[in-house]
Write a structure and sequence with these properties.
By secondary structure, the protein is α/β, with parallel strands linked by helices. The protein contains 15 helices and 14 strands. It has two domains: 126 residues, Aspartate Aminotransferase, domain 1; 230 residues, Aspartate Aminotransferase, domain 2, CATH 3.40.640.
């Protein structure tokens, strides 16, 4: 009986154009993929600097495996904290301008761990309505009171803060919003934190490695520094490998590895990955040419898609959402591109608001100008 009910719900999702499915990649992560046995030019990866298949990272991972083996064997606080983990935490903290850092298995686990450790009953979490699902889940599980504000609406947030007179206050925000590609107003958010004695948790999953001086992220992009800021970034997007980290004041990091359940009660990531990430961090530091090329591709795409019946959202980042509107129409457009050898994912509710189904076009420094021109040409052809 329960299975029958589940199938009914799946059928309902399918009728609304909301059923999810997976396809199997049989090639290395790259702008050129083999998916279900067919070759595609991909515009749906978060590998923004094209490092996921970089030979230096492959070599570093091999060296790390030879030195440390395959698995960590235990949690960091048991016997799973290796020298490569320690070195990576130190270098990441220095890179983003924070006193200390802590590695997590994923960005999802990092956000869960931070919010649940720092807030609870009697505290309040303030969150942008377009935040990533991991931040939404984290605040609900924290048992703190949750107050959500309209996307980037600083006036509404200020009003909510003024009405909160007790307990810890934590503002959570994406730095670059994953489905819209726009920035959070981090300077204004920090000013509100200063005025209302709050912390600011910045999820920089899509800014780290791409924005700021040497790719140091959104804090560098906005020239921000404050002990109130708790900074989280993932290591499987622009960094090209896997994992995440939180950087903050030393006392916050020490508190997290004593109180953060998603850190304490999980096996550490393989130490070989940290060896690969140390190599990745070096490439990120030296990646100004990659970032400049990525920026030129963003400008090329925006200019090329101007005037189409589907509108690009306002974004200066590698995330360029092309809003179609109807769920099935977005799926149909994605399929039409796939039939022409182009892989672009259709994003539908509940990931994005109703009526804003879209193609989430993502660019990489590994793309060429000719490849972007090919995408533009096919989309213009489909529009006709």
């Amino acid at each position: 009986m329960c299975f029958f009910e589940l199938q009914i719900q799946l059928d309902e999702r399918a009728a609304k154009g909301l059923l999810r499915s997976r396809r199997t990649v049989t090639s290395p992560q790259s702008t050129r993929l083999v998916v279900d046995g067919k070759p595609y030019l991909s515009f749906c990866s978060n590998d923004y600097l094209g490092l996921a298949n970089h030979p230096q990272l492959i070599e570093a991972l091999q060296q790390g495996t030879e030195e440390f083996g395959v698995g960590a064997g235990a949690a960091h606080l048991v016997n799973g904290h290796f020298a490569s983990h320690e070195q990576l935490e130190t270098e990441l903290a220095d890179f983003v301008g924070k006193p200390a850092a802590l590695l997590y298995s994923t960005g999802y686990m990092a956000n869960l761990g931070v919010v649940q450790a720092l807030t609870g009953r009697g505290d309040t979490v303030f969150a942008d309505k377009l935040n990533h699902a991991s931040l939404n889940d984290a605040m609900l599980l924290s048992r703190a009171e949750v107050k959500r504000y309209r996307h980037n609406d600083m006036a509404q947030l200020a009003s909510l803060l003024e009405k909160t007179i007790s307990g810890r206050k934590l503002i959570c925000t994406d730095a670059v919003f994953s489905m819209d590609g726009d920035y959070a107003p981090l300077p204004e958010l920090l000013a509100l934190c200063e005025a209302h004695d709050a912390w600011l948790l910045v999820d920089d999953a899509h800014g780290f490695g791409v924005l700021g001086c040497q790719g140091r992220g959104s804090l560098s992009h906005f020239a921000l520094a404050s002990p109130r800021i708790i900074y989280m970034a993932t290591l499987g997007k622009a960094a090209g490998v896997f994992g995440a980290f939180v950087a903050a004041e030393s006392v916050v990091i020490k508190y997290l590895f004593n109180q953060s359940r998603s850190y304490i009660y999980t096996t550490a990531t393989p130490p070989a990955l940290s060896v690969a990430l140390l190599a990745s961090l070096k490439l990120i530091r030296e990646g100004d040419v990659r970032r400049a090329h990525l920026h030129s591709l963003i400008m090329q795409l925006k200019q090329g898609l101007a005037g189409l019946p589907w509108s690009l959202m306002e974004s200066d980042t590698a995330i360029q959402p092309l809003v179609v509107g109807d769920n099935q129409a977005a799926l149909d457009l994605s399929v039409a591109l796939r039939e022409r050898g182009l892989w672009v994912a259709a994003i539908r509710p509940p990931t994005v608001p109703e009526g804003t189904a879209r193609l989430r076009i993502t660019l990489s420094a590994a793309h060429t100008s000719a490849e972007v021109a090919q995408l533009v040409e096919v989309l213009r052809e489909l529009a006709r």
